[in-house]
Design goal:
Elements (H helix, E strand, L loop, with lengths): L1 H10 L5 H44 L1 H33 L4 H7 L1 H10 L2 H14 L5 H14 L2 H17 L6 H15 L8 H4 L2 H6 L7 H6 L2 H19 L8
Length: about 250
């Protein structure tokens, strides 16, 4: 009870109602404007993707088709391996949650992420998992979880680096250690600005390609087949968020 009262006191608004409402109105207006822009992008994107993919496919022929299938399978495999081999053990080690317990607990959130391809759409399921199965505290659920959904996108980094490698192979561009390091750094930097919508990670891939001198139009090929990789990419994002949020039980040493 004392903890609940202390939390209520800390979260009590410190700004008067009138200026607070004015600020909220501005934020709502910005949100509406951003959503309007994103809707326009989603409407126009299929046309642009078709044009880019058609030109590139005509130029590269069957080599492009085979490379894209390999790209999709590689993203799926690496994302799955990243979750099972790194994120689950990290949650078990640092969050003091059993490996299998954590894996079973987050399945509902992963299912929503896999089907919706959106971290924002999976947020309610993540909250339910965190509150009911992982016993996360209210500050983590109300502050840390939304923050991680906004800026922490591990799956995007993995998929962008893999995608850039396949674009380089298609265009016959040799990448060295310095270029791989640049890809990783640029992918991490760009991941913080990725919108939580289906295909958001691939939309932000142009700066990653340009950072190592790869042609930006290569994104058109990846966009054409992005549905399948995006399922694994978003699932990895959600898994990483929940793994980072996991914490030791109260009183654990």
């Amino acid at each position: 009870l004392q903890n609940a009262e202390a939390w209520e006191h800390r979260t009590k608004p410190k700004v008067d109602a009138k200026p607070r409402q004015a600020l909220l109105d501005v934020m709502d207006a910005l949100q509406s404007a951003c959503l309007g822009v994103m809707r326009a992008v989603l409407v126009v994107a299929p046309i642009g993707v078709f044009c880019l993919a058609f030109v590139l496919a005509a130029r590269l022929g069957f080599a492009a088709a085979g490379a894209l299938v390999t790209y999709m399978l590689t993203v799926a495999f690496i994302c799955t391996l990243f979750c099972v081999g790194l994120l689950y053990p990290a949650a078990a080690m640092f969050g003091r949650v059993g490996y299998l317990t954590f894996a079973r607990a987050i399945v509902p959130a992963q299912a929503v992420a896999f089907s919706a391809r959106s971290s924002l759409a999976a947020y309610p399921a993540m909250l339910a998992v965190g509150r009911e199965k992982l016993n996360l505290s209210e500050p983590i659920l109300s502050f840390l979880m939304p923050l991680m959904i906004t800026v922490f996108r591990a799956g995007v980094v993995v998929a962008q680096v893999i995608g850039a490698m396949f674009i380089a192979k298609l265009y016959g561009v040799a990448l060295g250690p310095a270029q791989y390091a640049t890809l990783a750094i640029t992918s991490i930097a760009c991941s913080f600005s990725v919108p939580g919508i289906p295909g958001g990670g691939i939309i932000m891939m142009v700066p990653v390609l340009l950072s190592v001198g790869l042609p930006a139009e290569g994104v058109g090929l990846l966009l054409a087949v992005d549905t399948f990789p995006d399922m694994f990419r978003t699932t990895t994002n959600v898994t990483a968020d929940l793994a980072a949020a996991a914490k030791p039980p109260v009183g654990a040493s």
